[in-house]
Design brief:
By secondary structure, this protein is an alpha+beta fold. The protein has two domains: about 40 residues; about 100 residues, 2-Layer Sandwich (Phosphorylase Kinase, domain 1). About 45% of the residues lie in helices and about 20% in strands. A six-stranded antiparallel beta sheet has the order 1-2-3-5-4-6, with helices on both faces. A hairpin with a 2-residue loop joins strand 2 and strand 3. The longest helix is centred in the N-terminal third of the chain and has 32 residues.
Length: about 140
């Protein structure tokens, strides 16, 4: 086995480290762009539903729910079935903090939930994990 002590060997090692660093930086940059895309906002409940279905979500019995007057941050709510709810919120509302508090409350009552949270939307469904990769957002599960 040859030992590597000369300048050319030193240069090769540095070049290898530089290339590896560039590859890591490029892959992190791609992830960052994906996360940016994942934090998209939806302008309508119908657009949100289409994105959910395009991400692999199943929505058989679509029903738009009337909103209660007590929670003004909620713009729209639709049910795909009794286990899948799509919620759209006003811009600027901290959906993630609300989702964490909602999960904490439901767990204290003995219920388990799977939530997927975006910039102005939330999915409460067992399908959250399934659509997470394509739809993005923050996954908050059992």
């Amino acid at each position: 086995m040859r030992s590597c002590l000369g300048r050319s060997c030193y240069a090769k090692v540095l070049l290898s480290i530089l290339l590896a660093t560039m590859m890591i930086a490029c892959s992190n940059n791609t992830e960052s762009q994906t996360e940016e895309k994942d934090s998209s906002r939806f302008k309508s409940l119908e657009d949100f539903k289409k994105a959910f279905e395009n991400a692999g979500g199943q929505c058989w019995g679509w029903n738009v729910e009337p909103l209660s007057k007590g929670f003004s941050q909620l713009l729209a709510r639709g049910n795909c079935d009794d286990k899948t709810v799509l919620l759209l919120y006003t811009d600027g509302y901290d959906v993630k903090s609300y989702a964490l508090e909602f999960r904490k409350t439901t767990l204290s009552l003995g219920f388990k939930v799977s939530l997927l949270v975006g910039e102005n939307w939330m999915i409460n469904s067992d399908q959250a994990t399934k659509v997470h990769r394509k739809l993005g957002g923050t996954l908050i599960t059992r």
